[in-house]
Here is the input.
Amino acid sequence: MNISKVAVANEENTKDCAARRLLADVSLRLSKEGGRQTPLLSGYRCPCLVSQTAPIQGFDARLEFEGAPLEPGQKRRIRFDFLTQEGAEAMRMSRRFFLWEGRIIGEAAVVYQEVRLLRLTGGGSSLEFDVVDIPDVRAALQKRAGAPQRQEEHALFTVYHFEGCTLTFQNEWDDPCFISDTAEGGRMLADLYGDLSSSR
Here is the structure.
């Protein structure tokens, strides 16, 4: 298999920004299926491919995770730090991609497609995200802010009442989002944005 393009940037000039990061559920192939003979360690770097068929395009990424090394045949949620924003965007568009080491050694499914923190007119904020796993976003909110004092479930949205602010979660749009019209809620969404954009 020939790789027509592998985008590798100078790491010294690569900024550690959220636009180049994503989370994905990784499944390593068994050694007998052509996978690695040894486990992956956090910090491992390899090209990631959006397709197994020509023309093949690859983008270099560093894999970051906590805990024990990832053994062939195992699955784990991993943060990918791409050396170019183009690489991260290609994987988000594809939703599934492949890890390459002279051959395909694993597959990955993107968890968070994109997170956007928007400032609304009137001082409000909106945290929008394309997600596969919405419960994980709610779990991140609870980890950040604790359990809400009160929660109102409606057909198309949920209202979370915290001390000092209220957040509305809307899930009927193509891009689910949290909305707040207060400064305190905006600060909470900014913190949540940081949590979702970085490794946990």
Summary: The domain at 113-197 is CATH 3.30.1360 (Gyrase A; domain 2). The radius of gyration is 19 Å. The CA atoms of residues 62 and 179 lie 33 Å apart.
